[in-house]
Design brief:
CATH topology: Aspartate Aminotransferase, domain 1
Strand content: 5-15%
Oligomer: single chain
Order of helices and strands: EHHEH
Number of strands: 2
CATH architecture: Alpha-Beta Complex
CATH superfamily: Aspartate Aminotransferase, domain 1
Helix content: 25-40%
Length: 86
């Protein structure tokens, strides 16, 4: 199971993907797992290439893919582990 969050930059000119990677690395240093399950929006995945979408045509979807990060969430997490993730 997973709990997906958005990691955004404070300013509009920041690079969300770079900021997300920094957060991911920080979590890893604290031995908290995280994963990017959605690195590419659907319209840019190879299986949908025949539709002819180009980068920039669906900017909200593309931005979301640069911002989402999944944290561990499953019934077996102990209270201590939950506190560490939070």
């Amino acid at each position: 199971n997973q709990y997906t969050i958005r990691v955004i930059t404070a300013g509009r000119n920041g690079n969300s993907a770079t900021h997300r990677e920094a957060v991911k690395n920080s979590l890893q240093e604290k031995q908290v797992g995280s994963m990017v399950y959605y690195p590419y929006p659907l319209h840019l995945q190879p299986v949908y290439q025949y539709l002819g979408y180009q980068p920039g045509q669906l900017p909200v979807a593309e931005q979301a893919c640069n911002e989402v990060l999944s944290l561990p969430m499953f019934p077996e997490l102990t209270t201590e582990q939950q506190d560490q993730v939070i």
